[in-house]
Design goal:
The chain contains ten helices and 16 strands. It has about 400 residues and is an alpha+beta fold. The radius of gyration is 20 Å and the shape is globular.
Amino acid sequence: MPTPLWTLCRSWSAVMLLAVAMPALAEDSARKVPVIEQVDQAVTKLVDKNVVAGAVTLVSEDGKLVHLSAIGKADIESDKPMTRNSMFAIASMTKPITATALMILVEEGKVNLDDPVSKYIPEFADVKLDGKKLEKPITLRQVLTHTSGLGGDQRVVKSLENQGKILAERPLHSLPGTKWQYSPGLNVIGRVIEVASGKPYAEYLQEKIFTPLKMKDTTFAPTEQQKPRIATLYAFDDKSGELKPSTSWIGNVETDPYPNPSAGLYSTASDLSRFYQMMLNGGFLGDTKVISRDSVAELTKAQTPDEIITGFTPGNRWGLGYCVVQEPQGVTEALSPGTFGHGGAFGTQSWADPKTGRFYLLLVQRSNLGNSDGSDLRKDFQNAAKTALSK
């Protein structure tokens, strides 16, 4: 086991290394960056098989960038290559960022994780299960761990205030605290952030997370300058055996213009690396503090009991907005117990491993990939990176 002093030195080195490296990478996408050939080979095989049109992969170890690569096409029809600064709709990878924003309010004493949701959204006082009012109210902790009993789609209609009322009227699927069910609970958290902070949800995230971490390409509404860098969403067509352009409400600012705390963000590998390095560093990146070390620990520890099965792959439990790997196996075999992160509907993945000091980012845009958390693409990427770094 490393000593506390060693751990502190390692964390501080990681802070300084990434703080220096990542801005430069973001500003100069043409500079030479490290590439793990085994990772590129694994991704290329799946691009060649039309699993995805292209991918951006990033691996960091102890705060040092050890791999950043773009493979394939961002848009097949126009023959536009994928680049390291391509932008992606990260879908449910938005959830951990929303949870982290709430934890800032917890630190400020404006929110308590065990508060009833009804303290911030009064309509939740009347939530019912099988037509009967609950004996105990739904708490923020239950919403964050997907054990609130909420279910159904994760869209936001008109505003988070309006959506909070809609969710309060939606019948529960189970008694709160007894079952894990993936839910629109982070949309509830988005509204709580608005009420507790007195600011619009998207504005709060910009002020407290994106601006301090210099995540300049992380947004709910890409600008005209950013739009050309967005990778096209594809679906596999069984009849032709080819990838065809696809559509979704997720990330569609024309049909769903309201910031969605569950699924609405666009981002890049560079930006997401800054966020996950901050989390691995215990809330800091360089001289910038986002949250405390204790808050990081609370967000990323297993909050659900062993008897409740959680997640989309075996061996996991759930933290506050984060999936936590409890017993690595199968697709998670390259990771250590305690690894935290989240996937997205379009195949995107982000996983941070405190034991090894590594994090893995996989950015793709594929709409009918199935269980993206359990995809061969994720498994092959992580395994290839671990094998190369373990030599």
